[in-house]
Amino acid sequence: MALVCLTDFQAQARERLSKSSWDFIEGGADDCITRDDNIAAFKKIRLRPRYLRDVSEVDTRTTIQGEEISAPIGISPSGFQCLAWPDGEMSTARAAQAAKVCYITSTYSSCDFEDIVAAAPRGLRWFQLYVQPDQQLNKQLVQRAECLGFKALVITVDTPIPGNRRHDVRNQLDLQKNLMLKDLRLPKERNSIPSLQTSGISKSLCWDDISWFQSITRLPIILKGILTKEDAELAVKHNVHGIIVSNHGGRQLDEVPSTIDALMEVVAAVNGKMEVYLDGGIRTGNDVLKALALGAKCIFLGRPILWGLACKGEDGVREILNILKNEFHASMTLAGCRSIAEISQDLIQFSRL
Ligand SMILES: Cc1cc2nc3c(=O)[nH]c(=O)nc-3n(C[C@H](O)[C@H](O)[C@H](O)COP(=O)(O)O)c2cc1C
After folding, report:
1. Which residue from 21, 24, 78 has its CB within 8 A of the most atoms of ligand 1, so it is best to mutate?
2. Which of 261, 268, 271, 316 has the CB geometry, 3.0–4.6 Å to 311, for a possible disulfide?
3. Could you give the CA distance from residue 123 to residue 236 in angstroms, rounded to a whole number?
4. Is ligand 1 within 6 A of the CB of residue 248?
């Protein structure tokens, strides 16, 4: 059967993956309330289209952190992509480069960062950091990413501990076995700093650490996982360059708001002082249009990329991106928006929210 929308890939990926890999990808924390809300909340929003506007030319191009992308669609960081396809992240990187979108590469990539960059040398990439307890290791990871040409540092802030994903516990999933990360330490550092495999994620990360990161890199810093106006205001105060409104696809604290519901308060608090992005629950072109109308500069996809990988590797990711880009182009056309600049809050029917 032809795969014509993102959820067609979801159904086929389920057939192709082992139960434990499927559960790992699909899983949310605890009762999966937030994971499911991310999708349901988009479906409550209704659009107000405008007609008679000559939509014979519709341009989906935009910029993020000053770099042009073909559409406001990117790839969220997800670790362990070799669970879905043998050369996981390398396929993802190639597909992102072909589609001219941004690929946020995870700290917990199963491929070596050099190989990911070599697979798609012209692609736009940001590096996602799970802050490690060892500062030397953090410094080395960030500076390595900067040397490799990553264009921004995305610090994930919602993971002081991993969320409680019940299926993974039941399946006794052992991610250490799948990590397969290359050891990025220089030989002389091997005794003095821990490797990623043994280091774990820092529980002590706090606002004061942001200035330390700013002192070790020239890359713009983007915080992933902000959900409230209070934290958005602190992000402005600490001079970061962007926020990804995210609840980790409902995999961390359960029963937090869906991302589309959290977006407006973050956008209002930031008041144009930095770019705001969103991930979580995006499955159609209309979802992209709604997120942009409510103030996101770009959206990012998590699970759909892994479905594409699981079905067809690089071709699957390319198809996922093309389907969503085409749907978004159609949504803009049908709603009367000829350019990204024409997408505004007027498109949203607030009386229903
Ligand atoms: C299998 C899987 C692995 C993930 N790994 C990471 C990661 O390494 N770093 C991170 O910041 N977020 C990670 N996330 C969260 C995603 O970046 C993203 O926030 C989320 O998947 C978006 O929701 P969606 O799946 O509904 O699109 C992961 C998500 C999944 C499903």
Report:
1. 78
2. 316
3. 29
4. yes
Q: Could you read off the pLDDT of 163-202 as tens digits, one per residue?
A: 999 999 999 988 766 555 556 676 777 777 887 777 789 9
- Condensed to tens digits (0 to 9), the pLDDT of residues 207-222 reads 999 999 999 999 999 9
Distance from the alpha carbon of residue 276 to the mean position of ligand 1, in angstroms: 17
35-82, pLDDT tens digit by residue? Answer: 999 999 999 999 999 999 999 999 999 999 999 999 999 999 999 999
Question: CA angle at residue 181 from 247 to 18, to 5 degrees?
Answer: 65
Q: Which domains does the chain carry?
A: 6-350 (3.20.20.70)
Helix runs in the chain, H state only: 6-16, 19-26, 33-44, 88-99, 113-119, 135-147, 166-170, 175-179, 196-199, 208-216, 229-237, 259-270, 285-293, 303-335
* Nearest CA residue ID for atom 15, ligand 1: 248
Known binding residue 77? Answer is yes
- Separation of 248 CA from ligand 1 center, angstroms? 5
End-to-end CA distance of the chain: 37
